[in-house]
Specification:
The protein has helices at 30-40, 71-83, 127-131, 152-157, 162-166, 207-218; strands at residues 2-8, 17-23, 45-49, 56-61, 66-67, 90-94, 97-105, 108-114, 119-120, 137-140, 144-148, 172-178, 186-192, 197-200, 222-227, 233-240, 259-264, 266-273. By secondary structure, the chain is an alpha+beta fold.
Length: 276
C-alpha cells in the first residue's frame, strides 16, 4: 500500500502541519490503522479506501486515538489524490458526514466542512491554571474548548502545563486572538494532549470553531486565520449556510447545519510503500 507525508496549510516544505496519507487496498482492522499512526507519529494519519462507486471512506488516527474530524489530513488526502490524476469534486464518507473537496485555483484546495460553533460558558476547572492566561471569553464546541485572549503576543507566548491540561475534559483547547497588527484576521494555537498531540501545528477542524466565532465578531464571512505554532500555517475560511438537501443527495453532514469552507495549500514531502 502506498503511503505519503504531506505538509498541509502551507506552500513551502517543512512548514504547516504534516500528515501521513495511506491509500488502502482493502479493509484493514482498526488496530492496524492505529499501529501505523503510532509508527508515523504525525498528529494525524489518514486512511482512505475506495469501495464501490460512492464516496471514498476516510478515517483519521492520532498516534493514540481515532478522531471524528480532521482538516489538515483531509487536505493532505485530497492533495495526494489530485497529484495522482484525480480532478474535480472528491467526496469522502467520514464520521462527521460526507466531506467534499475541490481545486480552487492557484494551487488551493477547498474543503466543505461542518461548522462547529462554540457556546459561551465558564472555564472548566483547571483550564486557566493549565494555560496560564487571563481569558477574555471562553466557550465549548462539540469537540473543543475555545479561549480568547487579548493579543497576538499572548497567543504566541502560551506555554501550557500539559499534565494539567490533560485533565481538562475536551478533545483539545483552542487559544485565539484578533490578528490586529498582522496580515491575518485572527490567530490561534491548538493543544490536544488528551488525544496524544501536545500542540498541533495547524488544525483544520479548529477553524470550524474559529470561523463562526470570528465571522460573527468581525461581520465578514471570508477570513484568513494564521496558526502561530512553531511551524505555522494559513487557513482561509468562508462561512456558508447549509446547502438544501434533495432526495438521494450525498452532500452535507448529519445533523445539518452551517458549513465552513476551509482552503489551503499542501506540499508532498515523500512517498513510499508499506512493507507490512
Amino acid at each position: 500500500m502506498r503511503i505519503f507525508t504531506v505538509d498541509s496549510f502551507t506552500d513551502r516544505p517543512f512548514r504547516g502541519n504534516p500528515a501521513a496519507v495511506c491509500l488502502l487496498d482493502d479493509t484493514v482492522p482498526d488496530e492496524w490503522m492505529q499501529a501505523v499512526a503510532a509508527e508515523m507519529r504525525h498528529s494525524e494519519t489518514a486512511f482512505v479506501l475506495r469501495e464501490g462507486g460512492g464516496p471514498r471512506s476516510l478515517r483519521w488516527f492520532t498516534p493514540a486515538v481515532e478522531v471524528a474530524l480532521c482538516g489538515h489530513a483531509t487536505l493532505a488526502t485530497a492533495h495526494v489524490l489530485y497529484s495522482l490524476g484525480e480532478s474535480g469534486r472528491l467526496e469522502f464518507a467520514t464520521k462527521s458526514g460526507v466531506l467534499t473537496t475541490e481545486q480552487a485555483g492557484d494551487g488551493l484546495i477547498a474543503m466543505d466542512f461542518p461548522a462547529k460553533p462554540a457556546t459561551p460558558g465558564t472555564p472548566p476547572d483547571g483550564l486557566v491554571e493549565a494555560l496560564g492566561v487571563t481569558p477574555m471569553w471562553t466557550g465549548r464546541s462539540e469537540f473543543d474548548l475555545l479561549v480568547e485572549v487579548g493579543s497576538v503576543a499572548e497567543v504566541r507566548s502560551v506555554n501550557p502545563d500539559m499534565e494539567r491540561l490533560t485533565g481538562v475534559e475536551a478533545r483539545g483547547v483552542i487559544v485565539t486572538a484578533s490578528g490586529q497588527g498582522t496580515s491575518a484576521d485572527y490567530v490561534s494555537r491548538f493543544f490536544a494532549p488528551r488525544a496524544g498531540v501536545p500542540e498541533d501545528p495547524v488544525t483544520g477542524s479548529a477553524h470550524c470553531v474559529l470561523a463562526p466565532y470570528w465571522s460573527a465578531r468581525l461581520g465578514r464571512d471570508a477570513l484568513v486565520g494564521e496558526q502561530v505554532s512553531e511551524r505555522g500555517g494559513t487557513v482561509r475560511t468562508t462561512l456558508r449556510p447549509a446547502p438544501p438537501t434533495t432526495p438521494g443527495s450525498t452532500l452535507g453532514s448529519t445533523p445539518q447545519g452551517d458549513r465552513v469552507e476551509l482552503a489551503g495549500h499542501a506540499v508532498t514531502i515523500w512517498s513510499g510503500e508499506l512493507e507490512v
